[in-house]
Each structure stands twice: as structure tokens, then as C-alpha cells.
Amino acid sequence: MAERGHEAKRLGLTLRDEPRSFPHEVLLLVRRSIRKIWNARGGGLYACGFVITFVFLETRMFLVDIVEADGVGAYFASQVTEIFFKYIGESIQNSISAFMWPLWFVDYRPPFGIGALVVMFLVFPRYLKAPLERWLFNDLQDGEPKA
């Protein structure tokens, strides 16, 4: 939690002092976050599916909150009061749902879902993993660990 606070402070200072570099700093933060999840889940197709599912669920949750708000002021007021309870609870629920992404995929179209999952497990390491890892880790300095 402290690390996220430091990251938020750093982004705020960047936005205040160097607004042009803010989008780049946000991209680096997103990469670092995805990299942590990627490493924690093993760095393969399962990790990729987890990240995609989690980002999808979190984005959907955020957009639903915005659509359901009565206005901008009401949205921010509700977020301040609900952040510790609703948002954290829903994020935990989204994490659990993201853990089960292969089941969702197989259940989508039962006979074809299993075949597509097998094909993805064969294709991913050969064609997709290396470019994805290059994008995730290209901002690391030489000698810096990938963890």
C-alpha cells in the first residue's frame, strides 16, 4: 500500500512539474504493474490471460461506476467514501475471477473453447511470449533484474 502511495505521489509531482512527461510515466507505471503480475503468475499464457481478464474486469467496474453516477461531483464524492470498502472488495472479487480465466474461456463455447485453449497454449510460447516480454521489460536498465 505504501508503494502505491509513493507511485501516486510521484505521478502527481510529474503532472505538476513536467506535464508533458506524465503520459510516459503512466505507461511506465502500467508496465511495472503488469510486470509484477506477470512474474507472480509465471510469465506464460496463464499470466497473460490473468492480466487481460483483470484489466477488463477493473475497466468494466470503473466504467459502470461512472455511468451510474449522477454527476462528476457525485462520482468523486462516492469514490472517496467507498474506496476502502466497495473498490477494494470488488478488486478482490475481480482478482479471483481473473484466476479462473481458463474456465471462462472453455465455458464460452464448450467444444471450441477447449480446442482454442490448447492451440493458445501451443502458439503463445512460440510466437507471442517473446514480443510481449520485450514490451514489458524494455524499460529496464542493463543488469536490472526482470522481477
- Helices, by number, come to 6
Q: How much of the sequence is in beta strands?
A: under 5%
Mean of pLDDT: 82
Described by strand count, sense and barrel closure, the largest sheet is: none
Secondary-structure element sequence?
Answer: HHHHHH
Radius of gyration: 18 Å
Helix % is over 70%
- Number of strand segments: 0
Shape: globular
Judged by helices, strands and strand pairing, the structural class is mainly alpha
Distance between the termini: 19 Å
Which parts are unreliable, with pLDDT below 50 for 5 consecutive residues or more? none
Provide structural commentary:
This protein is mainly α and 147 residues long. It has a domain of 93 residues. The chain is 84% helix and 0% strand. The chain has 6 helices and no strands. It is globular and about 50 Å long. The relative contact order is 0.09.
Attribute tags:
6 helices; mainly alpha; 84% helix; 147 residues
In a few lines, what is going on in this structure?
This protein is mainly α and about 150 residues long. The chain is about 85% helix and about 0% strand.
